Amino acid sequence: MSGEAVLARGLTRRFGRFTAVDGIDLAVAPGEIFGFLGANGAGKTTAIRMLCGLLPPTSGEATVAGIPVGRRAVELKQRIGYMSQRFSLYEDLTVRENLEFFGGVYGLSRHRIAARVAALLPYLGLAGTENRLTASLPLGYKQRLALGCALLHEPRVVFLDEPTGGVDPLARRRFWDLIYEQAAAGVTIFVTTHYMDEAEYCGRVSIMVQGRIVALDTPAGLKATTGGRDMQDVFLRLVDR
Amino acid sequence: MKRVAAIARKELVHIVRDRRSLAVAILMPLAMVLIYGSVIDMELRDLQVGVLDLDRSDASRELVREMTASGFIVEAARLASRAEVEAGFRRGRFRAVLVVPAGYAAGDRTGIQILVDAADAATAATVDNYLQAVVLRAARERLPAAGAPPPPFTARTRIWFNPELASAHFVVPGLVALVMMMICALLTSIAITREKEVGTLEQILTTPVAPAQVILGKALPYVGLGALDAALILAVGRLAFKVPMNGSWLALAAYTLLFIVIALAVGLLISARSSSLRVAMMAAIIVTMLPTMVLSGFVFPIASMPRALQAVCQLMPATHFLVVVRGILLKGQNWYPLQTAILAAMAIVILTLAARSFRLRLE
Amino acid sequence: MGPLASLMRKEFLQLRRDHAMLRLVLVLPIVQLLVLSYALDNDLRNVRVSVLDEDRTPLSRGIADALWESDVFVPGPPLASGDDLARSLKVGRCDLAVRIPAGLARDVAGNRSAAIGVHVDGTNSSTGGRAAGYAEAAIARAATGRDGRVGAVRFFYNPELESRLYMVPGIIVMIATIVSAMLTGMAIVREKELGTLEQVLVTPLGSLQYVAGKSAPYALIALVDLALATGFAAVWFHVPLAGSPLVLLAGVLAYLAVTLSLGLIASVVSDTQQQAMFTVWFFLVFAIMLSGFFFPIENMPPWARVLTWLDPMRFFLAIVRGVLLRGAGFGDLARDLLVLAGMGAASFTGAVLAFRRATS
């Protein structure tokens, strides 16, 4: 078993004649914050869906948290957390009920759920909101709650698909603080974003264009090779090429 | 008008894109005509009857043979004893049992018994009548001299407007009303509530279109779809079941238009009053589809209902529309002053209510 | 707490918050039962009969009186002429008209055969024919003084021939079908529309667990509805519970497995709640038509009779009516129960497979 948290070799997905993901290779180390960038429609979401076991690859292979994707989907899902670009928790459940539901679905014991919820609520800054209906929360709170639901079962890899879309800079800042703490604790973070300042926070960044990874390096390395002033510039140069 | 057209065009795209809903909207009425036209048939066929022959004579065998010779009755089982009767009923093997008494060949007619599974009361009465007729005929033929004198007078029946009592002639006009309600009320209410839920209605209302134009534009394609369905139903009814058109097409079109206006108004009222799509859909089915099927005289006669329910039936637009459509198609009667007044009044009242609650909602 | 239990608990929590839905689901069945039981009544009543007596003799008046002995007929407006008769039928002032021709008494006295006209509005093919039958029977009775019956008749299970006893169990079946299939029909597609389905899919929850967890709460609702409706039917309409509740429960469970699974399949193959509802509605219309609910199966043309074998409602209806009205037991209903159980197992498997296919 390799030590990498996420490993992909020639991972490909075709829909009919359209190739959404075209043979990508990548390796992410445990505890790394990996930025997965690309224009809209470049194939990021398809790639993440394959890595999460939601979509079988057409060819190529990948291992996530030591489990090969495509087979053993249940084991894989037990070891990862996922938070999607669209807020996708139950609006008609309270904060606590949402957390308890996902805890139960991940098969945690009642005792364990209670302990995790008690620990996560203050950690996420959600203490005092536990009995409020999720629908009544501001978006920033909802996103932290979604992160909480993805972290509840202490996954080894967390996939965040545009986690901070639509929230104010302060809320984004708080969210990234949480991500840093998780990475420091050894959790691998695999994140897509459209905010280039957020790309700067990542350990390494890959940039996807039309289904292929065209660049993969640290933010500093990318700026050096492309001659871009900042990540925004780097991104525009690579995507336009 | 241009704005209304733009909204109507957009709505039409929605309708055409959603292939399955479109298929349901067009195929369901067609399938309903075909099935309703051939399934609703009160004439019994292949009636399953068990026989308990205690006589075992040539005469009793002849009676059974004559019973099945009528073509309506099938001998489903030959019973050995009375104990088998109820077991057969419970298993649904037969609907009735003819018991031929031991003295039948010797002339015992009063000992004949007809045992009927009356759980289904309507069929039971018919089964009884059929068997009575068979036994009576057999008895008379076997004892010609003892037969009663011919009756002094008899009834001569003439069936008007639908001489063959074809069920399709009765049902097809009803389906027109049902489908109008389904398409114009149900689909419109769903379409509007959906936009409200998704938030696109707000987007449209920020443009310079007047709310009335939005509603009109959204409703128009459904009016077209409803009219198309009605035409299809009438065409299939005519081709497959020979449903006649004895009245004027103009009268039919005018009354149908009036009914469409009412159906749309009902749809608007529902969408204005419901909080979510799910509620709107349930409400639309409960308020439009069920009463139109059940409380309008579509199949079940209003005259047989209790008084209170009859009053409710009079509140259903379809009740009055059905009288009109059946009258135009089957009877050739083109003008209905009472129904016209009632339908017009309903249109005005429901439209006013809908407009008022819509204005409240939007403000 | 196991994943399955968590899922069910969540479904119940959501349902409890949806007050409008809950009201609809719990109050409506009773209202429907009440209204439909009175409305779906095939017995003939209040048929308006107008008499055109052109003979005006004691004999003709006697014939007219014979009509009112039947509790099916009520007097319609009197008729003045043959034209009036045609007109009255056409505008619907009466449903049936009897024309007693002038000279009837004279013909009868002179032993010449005479005919009395029965004119019936055949627009309603079902009531028209039966009303004519009643009128003919009344006239035959007046002519011969006998009702022309032989032997003895015994009506089992429903000696009063009340059609309501037969319809009410059918209505209970229909309500249970609508509630269970409609609610599950919208269940999965709603999560799809809201985006919550994806979040659940990344969890280790299996297809089987998901489908079972999604349908369980609706099964409970349908059971509650069934119990409410059956209890109400017994108290209000005096529908007997002649057989064993256990047989009924076996049928109910098998049938709910079918309707809930079919609802879920409709939900899985639909993209919007609207589509799901249409798919379910489409299924329901035909299931009801072919079940023998209103129209006896043996009256149907052969091709339609073959189709009824695919209709789960047909078998469930036979079970419910058999148990409630005839006291049928496991042995009597073995065929229907087995077919239904097979359909239940097949459709539940179908739902799990459809869900698995749609999500991978």
What does this structure look like?
The complex is a heterotrimer of chains A (241), B (363) and C (360). Chain A has 241 residues and is of the alpha/beta class. Chain A has helices at 44-51, 73-79, 95-105, 110-123, 139-151, 169-184, 196-200, 219-226, 231-240; strands spanning 6-15, 18-28, 33-38, 59-64, 67-68, 80-83, 157-161, 188-192, 204-209, 212-217. Chain A has one domain (6-89, 156-240): P-loop containing nucleotide triphosphate hydrolases (Rossmann fold, 3-Layer(aba) Sandwich), CATH 3.40.50. The longest helix of chain A is centred in the C-terminal third of the chain and has 16 residues, at 169-184. Chain B is built from 13 helices and five strands. Chain B has helices at 2-17, 19-39, 58-69, 83-91, 121-142, 167-198, 200-205, 211-241, 249-273, 277-294, 307-314, 317-331, 337-362; strands spanning 47-53, 73-78, 96-100, 113-117, 153-160. In chain B, helix 3 links the parallel strand 1 (47-53) and strand 2. Chain C has helices at 3-17, 19-39, 58-68, 82-91, 104-109, 125-144, 163-194, 196-201, 207-237, 245-269, 273-290, 302-307, 312-326, 334-358; strands spanning 47-53, 73-75, 96-100, 114-121, 152-156. The mean pLDDT of chain C is 89. The chains are: A alpha/beta (241), B alpha/beta (363), C alpha/beta (360). Chains in contact: A-C, B-C. The interface between A and C is medium-sized, with 37 and 27 residues. Strand 4 of chain B pairs parallel with strand 5 of chain C.
